[in-house]
Structures are given as C-alpha cells and as structure tokens.
C-alpha cells in the first residue's frame, strides 16, 4: 500500500494567522456569502415593514391628535379649517383606517412624509433634515471618538493586565454609571457658569448667521465641545471594559501563545492576532451605537438645548404632531436597520464562521 504524501502549505501561508477567527482560511477569504447576505436583507426588509406599520398605528392609538392640540393653541380656527387640516394630515374621520394606511404607504414611496403643524406647516423631511445634521455631527463624532479611545485603550490595558493601567477600568466604569443629566448639569455649572469657558447651550450663538465661514464653524465647535465631551466621558467606560474583557479571553488562545513562542514582536501579536479577534464583538456594538446616533441623546439635547433629532421627537410627542413623530421614528428605524445590516456584512467578511450558515 502506497502512502499518500501530505500536502504542505504554500510558502507565504501563515498557519497562525489562518487559524485566527479574524483572518480565516485563505481559500474562503475571497468567497462572498451571498446566501447569508440575502437572508439578512430579507429579514431586515420584513422588520422595516413591521416598524413602519407600528409607526402608523401607534400614534393613532394615543388620546387626541395633532389638530386637537393645534386648536387648543389657536382658538380662532373655524370648524371648516379644522376639517381641512384633518384631511390634509390624513386624519379625516370619513376615511377608514385601512385607507389611511394605504395612503400613508403611497406617500412614503413618493418620499413625502407629510407636513408638521408644530413647525408652521413645513414639510417633515425639511424639519427632520435640519435637526439630523446637528445630531449626526455632534453625537456621531463623539461616539466615534469614544469607540476609538475605548477600543484601543481596552486592548492595551488587557495586553498589560496586572499593571497600573488596570486602574483606568474602574475609573471609566464609575464615570459611565453617573446619570447623564447630572453629569451634563455639573459640566454646565463648572465650565459654563463658574469658569465661563463654554456656552451654556444651543448649537451656535445668538445673532450668528449660519453659513460656511470660519467664524460660524468656530462658534459651532465652541458650543459643541462640552456636550461632546460629556458623551465621550459617559460612554468611554463601556467600550474600554468590553475590549479589555475580550482581550483577556483572546490572550489565552493557543494561536496567541504560538505566535509569542515563535518570537514575533509584541506589537504584532497585540494588534494582528489578539486585538484583531477581540474587536469583533465591539463591531456589533459599534454598529448599534451608529444606528442610535440618529435618534440622538435626548437627555443631552434637552440639558444643552441642542437642536437635534432627540429634542425634535420630544417636542413632536408633546404636541401630538403625528406626521413629525412618524418621520422621526422612520429615520431612526432605517438608521438602526442599516447599521445592523452593515455589521452583519462586516462579520461575514471578518469572521469565516458566519459563512457556515450558507452550507
């Protein structure tokens, strides 16, 4: 009986790297998991339909409506004008709820989110778009900075476990447990009222004309520094603790031990083997955080009087402005679903085990 000669790996094939979760096998790296991605896309389309349906029916289950709240603020509106407003907002009592639902889908497919009574009959897309810019710019930047600092810092703390750097974990965790409204009020009291370094609130100063100029951009950065800093401080502990715990788990894996035994530089073992695998759960959390960026931090926007989507949603809910509520909810829902879909795509390419669902 003749023995079969074993097949040796290619000269440029790194068995340690191929054995890691993040790197995967060389043969499967170029394969696109179409079945997995298609299944996830169908799931998110169904979720989007369910969210839009709930978005339509939920406000109509609330007591009162936008026209009733508008009439309470404007006593001089005639009954005929009130009926015209109901018809314009899709709240006509002569139209069945099912027909209103179909009309709502027809408007959505044409990109029409209705008009907002709270903002003087302006289109909802225009109102939401203006607030969305401020929220994404502030909360998005703060979330990205917190994720980067927390992930890199957590990887270094986990790599140097047992050192003095471990003291960063309880400090950042303690700061993240402080109620945000209290943290924001303390920041305003110290840095705005006592020291006078930063404005108390708003996105830019009174009398400043919004335009692409150095004066306006500097004023926006000056107003946004304090709320952005409080968001970073409040969320840094979670990112750092999560990455540090995953690093402690990954450092006990065999491929890390073998890489160190081969005499590879510590920096390469840290970032190419250990951190590269430990960061995978962080990606999912970061995708969720990106989705909720659009929703904004309502407490932050209320404390700092910031004109973001979160405060817009709160004002729309208090005024029972159905169209504006539905527009904000729709934008938040789509952003969360897209963020989750992007996370699934990233996982499919970074973690070869995800592709096994195709089999």
UniProtKB/TrEMBL annotation:
Gene3D superfamilies: MetI-like (1.10.3720.10)
Sequence intervals crossing the membrane: 41-58, 132-159, 180-200, 220-241, 286-307, 327-350
GO BP, sorted A to Z: transmembrane transport
InterPro entries membership: MetI-like (IPR000515), MetI-like_sf (IPR035906)
Domain of life: Bacteria
Main localization (coarse): membrane
Matches recorded under Pfam families: BPD_transp_1 (PF00528)
GO CC term (a single one): plasma membrane
PROSITE patterns hit by this protein: ABC_TM1
Compartments it resides in: Cell membrane; Membrane
CDD domains, A to Z: TM_PBP2
Domain ABC transmembrane type-1: 132-343
Name used for this protein in its record: Dipeptide transport system permease protein DppB
Coiled coil feature spans: none
Record keywords, A-Z: Membrane, Transmembrane, Transmembrane helix, Transport
Family the entry assigns: Belongs to the binding-protein-dependent transport system permease family.
Membrane topology: Multi-pass membrane protein
């Amino acid at each position: 009986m003749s023995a079969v000669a074993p097949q040796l790996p290619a000269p440029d094939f790194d068995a340690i790297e191929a054995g890691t979760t993040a790197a995967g096998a060389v043969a499967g790296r170029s394969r696109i998991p179409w079945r997995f991605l298609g299944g996830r896309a169908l799931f998110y389309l169904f979720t989007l339909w369910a969210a839009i349906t709930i978005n339509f029916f939920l406000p109509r289950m609330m007591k009162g409506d936008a026209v009733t709240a508008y009439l309470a603020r404007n006593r001089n509106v005639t009954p005929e004008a009130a009926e015209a407003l109901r018809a314009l907002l899709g709240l006509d009592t002569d139209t069945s709820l099912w027909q209103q639902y179909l009309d709502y889908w027809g408007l959505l497919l044409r990109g029409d989110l209705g008009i907002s009574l709270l903002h003087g009959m302006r289109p909802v897309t225009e109102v939401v778009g203006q607030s969305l810019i401020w929220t994404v710019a502030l909360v998005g930047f703060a979330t990205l900075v917190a994720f980067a600092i927390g992930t890199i810092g957590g990887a270094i703390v986990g790599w140097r476990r047992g050192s003095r750097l471990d003291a960063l974990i309880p400090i950042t965790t303690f700061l993240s447990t402080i109620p945000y409204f209290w943290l924001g009020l303390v920041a305003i009291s110290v840095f705005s009222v006592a020291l006078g370094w930063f404005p108390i609130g708003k996105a830019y100063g009174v009398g400043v004309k919004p335009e692409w100029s150095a004066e306006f951009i500097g004023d926006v950065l000056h107003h946004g520094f304090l709320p952005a800093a409080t968001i970073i401080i409040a969320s840094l502990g979670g990112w750092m603790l999560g990455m540090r715990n995953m690093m402690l788990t990954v450092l006990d894996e065999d491929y890390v031990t073998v890489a160190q035994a081969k005499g590879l530089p510590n920096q390469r073992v840290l970032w190419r083997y250990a951190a590269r695998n430990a960061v995978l759960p962080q990606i999912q959390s970061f995708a969720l955080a990106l989705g909720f960026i659009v929703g904004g931090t309502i407490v932050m926007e209320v404390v700092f009087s910031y004109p973001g989507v979160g405060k817009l949603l709160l004002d729309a809910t208090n005024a029972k402005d159905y169209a504006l509520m539905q527009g904000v909810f729709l934008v938040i829902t789509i952003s969360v679903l897209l963020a989750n879909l992007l996370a699934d795509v990233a996982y499919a390419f970074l973690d070869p085990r995800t592709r096994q669902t195709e089999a």
